[in-house]
Amino acid sequence: MALARVLTFTLDGVESRRVWVEADIRSGLPAFTVVGLADKAVREARERVRAAIVNSGFEFPFKRITVNLAPASLHKVGPGFDLPLAIAVLVSSGQLPGEAVEGCAVCGELSLAGEVRPIRGALAMAEGTRRHGLMRLVLPQSRAREAALVDSIEVCGVESLTETVEVLRGDRTPSPLPPPEPPAPFGEDSVSRLDLSDVRGHNALVRPVTVAAAGGHNLFMHGPPGTGKTMIARRIPSLLPPLSSGEAIGVTRIHSVAGLHDGTGLVACRPFRAPHHTVSPSGLVGGGSGPSPGEVTLAHHGVLFLDELSEFPRSSLEALRQPLEDGKVAIVRGQRLTIFPSRCMLVAAANPCPCGMGENRCRCSAADLSRHQRRLSGPLLDRIDITLFVERPPASALRSQSAPSSADTRAQVVAARERQVRRFADSGVTCNAQMTSRMLRELSGATGKATSLLYELHDRDKLSARGHARVLRVARTVADLDGSDAVLPEHVKEAAGHRTQQAQAA
User: Fold this and answer.
1) DSSP code of 100?
2) What is the bridge-based pairing of β-strands 116-117 and 109-110?
3) How far apart, in Å, are the Cα atoms of 159 and each of 54, 83, 119, 124, 261?
4) What is the mean pLDDT of residues 245-264?
5) Which residues neighbour 204 within 8 Å (Cβ) at sequence distance 6 or greater?
6) SS3 96
7) pLDDT in tens, 228-251
8) What is the DSSP code (8-state) at residue 74?
9) What separation, in Å, do the N-terminal and C-terminal C-alpha atoms of the chain show?
10) CA 413, CA 247: separation in Å to the nearest integer?
11) 336-341 and 154-158 as β-strands: parallel, antiparallel, unpaired?
């Protein structure tokens, strides 16, 4: 018997961390011990591994087996350690040569019959394989196409423990990867089939919604029920530009770690998440005993839509403040720091009062109105770039007004985004809403008159310093939509109007 070492990966947030599976078999009373800060799913792997080895026709050594998962300080979670545990036992017992697993990472869950089942985070593990200079990754066949998105490594998809051993020995050629599916043309997903032209009677809202999409700005719509707030919000993804290759990889990694990806390839469309208003703080921003991504992370590079904003628990809304400002969520559990990305566009909708009828027909008492307003804190609303009042459109507007198509509006958005990408080249920033304070000073391009006007508006409207910066970011987007390199006074006026706009259906 010999000491065996097999390399695998565990998930830490949306990234993968390298783990050494070390197996030692010695004479003594039969025992199978797993050490190294493993969770319950990993400790239960002992029974799955024992049954899979026997049912696959191999010999399970009835001796003292000790398996160490190193580094011991790293928490190991999930059933993806089954396959590397089984391979380590087979190598240590002499049923598989040790050189067969050199330069190779192994990941997968086992059934009692020895079948290899899908795992989460295959893309993150493939990236970890390349990052650590390994040449080969063995994982479930159903996740091979996802892992193959990472180049410079050999991806071997397997369906059973027996096939894994044969592939590692070199007795069998790995099954060919499924042919990649051609990416769907933009607009083919279920969300993007919703077209902006379906919106009628709200032509005055098209411009501010376009500005929000062009700059990735947070948008808040309030007004009576049934006026079209939700309808507009659900069509915003159809206005956004397609994902870049880097963004698509990031979104696919997140969805794979969360178990929302089917393993077929890159996510082709921007995510749109619309959680129910009863969502908890950890469900919205992430958390739990083993931290998992929340809705704000699942909406990374996409849209997070909060309908009926005033019905969300205040604790959940307050938890959103830092992710919206920083573009990431930092969660500390058991002295471990986990960071999830949260760079998304927030779109929210709410009624003006509990009854929803607004000023003219409102039946709410003063106490009801005060309670309703307290649910929406000032610090959260201060992080909103564009505020719109959505009125009930008159019958004449419903008959005669139709918004432009999503394709036409998206062309304007794409042109504005291209200007932003050129401006922020090599900075990691992709749109105006992500500009830091220093970038805002150096790259906004505001003229002297525009700056003077902005300071006048700052005093007149009693803007906070954050609100001042957000008006300038929106003004920069308005200038990009107009094809202007400089931010002019008219751009600042429009941006300030969008921040407090009471849009009327023309």
Assistant:
1) G
2) antiparallel
3) 17, 11, 12, 20, 19
4) 91
5) 503, 504, 505, 506
6) coil
7) 999 999 999 999 999 998 999 999
8) S
9) 83
10) 17
11) unpaired
431 close to 423: Cβ distance less than 8 angstroms: no
**pLDDT at residue 279 in the model:** 95
CB-based contact 34:43 (threshold 8 Å): yes
Type and span of the H or E element at 70: strand 64-70
b/e burial code for range 442-459 (CB count within 10 A of at least 16 → b):
ebbbbeeebeebbeebbe
* Complete domains list, the chain, with CATH: 4-169 (3.30.230.10), 196-427 (3.40.50.300)
Q: Quote the CA–CA distance of 309 and 221 in Å, as a whole number.
A: 10
* Structure tokens given for 480: 């990009």
Residue among 222, 475, 267 nearest 372 (CA): 222
Q: Which helix (H) or strand (E) holds 297?
A: helix 295-298
Taking CA 251 as the corner, what is the angle to CA 245 and CA 253, rounded to the nearest 5 degrees? 100
Beta-carbon count within 10 A of 314 CB: 14
Mean pLDDT, range 469-486, rounded to an integer: 95
**Residue corresponding to tokens 């992710």:** 323
Cβ pair 506, 204 in contact under 8 A: yes
What region does 334 belong to: left with phi over 0, alpha with psi -120 to 50, or beta? left
Phi, psi of 122 (to 5 degrees): -60, -40
- CB-based burial of residue 105 (10 Å sphere; 0-12 exposed, 13-18 middle, 19+ buried)? buried
CA atoms of 251 and 255, how far apart (whole Å): 6
**Secondary structure in 3-state letters for 140-173:** EHHHHHHHCCCCCCEEEEECEHHHHHHHHHCCCC
- Decide if 87 contacts 99 (C-beta within 8 A): no
Query: pLDDT digits over 37-91, tens only?
Result: 888 888 899 999 999 999 999 999 999 999 999 999 888 988 899 999 999 999 9
Burial class (CB in 10 A: 0-12, 13-18, 19+), 339: middle
Query: Three-state DSSP class for 340?
Result: strand
CA distance 263 to 39: 25
- List % helix, strand, coil for the chain (3-state, nearest 5): 40, 20, 40
3-state DSSP of 343-368: CCEEEEEECCCCCCCCCCCCCCCHHH
Structure-token match 């400790």, residue found: 43
Residue environment code for 65-103, b if the CB has 16+ CB neighbours within 10 A, otherwise e: bbbbbbeeebbbbbbbbbbbbbbbbbbbbeebeeebbee
Residue 234 to residues 230, 348, 441, 489: CA-CA distances in angstroms?
6, 11, 34, 32
Q: How confident is the model at residue 190 (pLDDT cuts 50, 70, 90)?
A: very low
pTM: 0.90
Q: How confident is the model at residue 96 (pLDDT cuts 50, 70, 90)?
A: very high
Please provide the DSSP assignment of 430-479 as one string: -SGGG--HHHHHHHS-B-HHHHHHHHHHHHHTT--HHHHHHHHHHHHHHH
